[in-house]
Amino acid sequence: MTDLPRGAFRRSARLASIPLGIAGRAALGIGKRATGQPAAQVSAEMQARTAAQVFEVLGSLKGGALKFGQALSMFESAVPEELAEPYRATLVKMQEAAPPMAPETARATLRADLGDDWEQLFTEFSDEPAAAASIGQVHRAVWSDGREVAVKVQYPGAAKALISDLNQVTRVARVSAGWVPGLDLQPVLDELNGRMAEELDYHLEAYSQEQMADAYAGDPTICVPNVLMAAEHVIVSEWVEGRPLSDIIAHGTPAERNVAAERYLEFIISAPSRSGLLHADPHPGNFRMLEDGRLGVLDLGAVSRLPDGLPTALGELVTLALRDDADGVLEILREEGFVRSSIDVDAEDLLAYLGRFLEPLREDSFHFTRSWLRGIFAYINDPLGQDFAVGLRLNLPPQYLLIHRSWMGALAVLCQMDATASPRSIIDAHVPGAALPALD
After folding, report:
1. Pair (381, 304) in one structural domain
2. What is the DSSP letter of 299?
3. Tens of pLDDT along 57-72?
């Protein structure tokens, strides 16, 4: 593979092949059952083939398509077990790797960005990528001063592919927007397009990484590698050796998962107040656990710039909700744009709806599990539930888009870990406006 598939028609056709392939396998399955093959065997075969196709299509397209797949990989913990199992290994695989580009293509990018003599910057350089993801892949190398470094190289055509994928998502989202009366979708789409486009700017990513590295320099629990060099399509930073979070999720002991969960949650929540940046791409492929117990943070392409930290209203909202102040909660949600002026909603019903999400904050520590998250997703998506209509009346203000993306993604990852952590103390310490009431 030498390039990202760049034509909008080609990419759309590949994406469309997923539902078409599912339909074709369903028809084939009916035929197999008609010939006497056991239904369970046919179903398992169909699910395995579908999982393989999802990874092959989204992985080979990279760009926004693979980012969508990586988002799916976080939320497999919310899917019922009988449906999730055939897809779990495939989706988790997206957190760590995607099909790499050819060595000559990577070298061409390095030559174009760093000059014809780019190899003199390194004493060693591996053509075999150490990791391959949605927009770029990473090569291991040794810098001229002897330091081990990670060389991140952007895929040719990444910009066009990402824009094409975002356009596809936008078209689908606009069609469905009218079904949700409380949602003002256009500002959210504008924010999403702007932020995703920023991920293509490696100069900006390097600046964000340097800012985050300075904020956590010498920290005993968090490690953000320093940047040595940046160009339009290349970033060189210190190498971080550690155990992938996805491996800890799959094979870690309860103690290892608990430590990783605490470090991970502390970073996600504390980063805005400490660095002025929110990490907005919390999938496990972006994190490692180091031998010294620190959490290594590997990718700062998707961030939200919050120079004053998280909004004070967020801490006040959580505090009022835990105090069962329904009117105060509704007032803040209206002020912040979560409830539009044209929407009527009962304050007590709203507080009851939000209460399910606040369960981890009603204890000193909380055990995050797949079953708990499945219960949350079943609750908010049950059209027969008494609170379903409340959720439909809520809006997502664009200034909260990446906060929502980061926190919901992190919540899903914590549930994948099946780990115990202390979100209450972390939020109380790092979210402005939070003054959580004492526990009974």
Report:
1. yes
2. -
3. 444 444 444 444 444 4
